Amino acid sequence: MKLELVVTLTLEATHSLEEREKPHDHRWDIQVGLKGDLEKGRVVSLTHAQELLSSLLKPLQHTFLNNNEYLDKNARTCPTCENLALFLLDRLKEPLNQLNPKNPPAISFIQVGIWDEGVQLGFARLSL
Length: 128
What we know:
Layout: E1 2-17, E2 20-37, H1 46-57, H2 73-77, H3 81-92, H4 96-99, E3 106-116, E4 119-127
Antiparallel strand pairs: 1-2, 2-3, 3-4
């Protein structure tokens, strides 16, 4: 039986895009779907999955994404929901093996939503 565990975290950071040149703050809600077989009643440890994702987001927290060298060039040049989702996909592939070395979960989706002044403006969903 395959189940999906959805891990949710928040990123607070500043960015600038061509249509709004002045740097501005946003909250990004990040959701990652992890699909796999049940082992001991779960796909993976939610705590371990949150710690892993949090460690990947930590270098981005409270930074200006356009200048953050941790991001790849595409995400730095245009820090959008779409490019952040692609960046996370690339960064998550290897570490997922740590969550369950015998049967690592697969990423089923990555969703990055963006908020401004308490309103969700939209989100990008990368489905795999």
